[in-house]
Amino acid sequence: MKKLLILACLFVGPAYGAEWKTTPQTKYPVTLVGDLHDADSPVFNIFVPDLDLALINQKTRIENFDSCEVNRVRRTVIITKEELRRGIEARDYVIDLFKKYAVYISTKGKRDAYGRLLVTVYLTDKEHNPEVLDLKDLIFENKYDRSQL
Predict the structure, then answer these.
(1) CATH code assigned to 2-148
(2) Beta pairing class for 117-125 and 53-62
């Protein structure tokens, strides 16, 4: 029930008297929780500064991105050795980016079939360089999406 209340506050509108809206342009600072299993499904702690609120251990899925697999557990597709190699490279690449940059997300509050929050991930220089990078663009540049096999 507590989690439902927090999500309602986050995605429905103003809470605790604060004027606050979720739009795709709103970016929330996040930290990665634990190890990254694969490049498209990070678990984040999401911070909402306007509400002094944090969503802890939030499972997410990067919207419009399907990374190469890192193991053969997914039985609905054929997974080659090349895909496994590229999946591990993609995961390690994303981990390195998360260490190098400050990480932010935006969301429309929608979830996938597995209950993961659909997000767009942005990276900025930790010294607050105004350039903002979209993680998905970097992934596609390096050909780590399954559609590029």
Answers:
(1) 2.40.50.90
(2) parallel
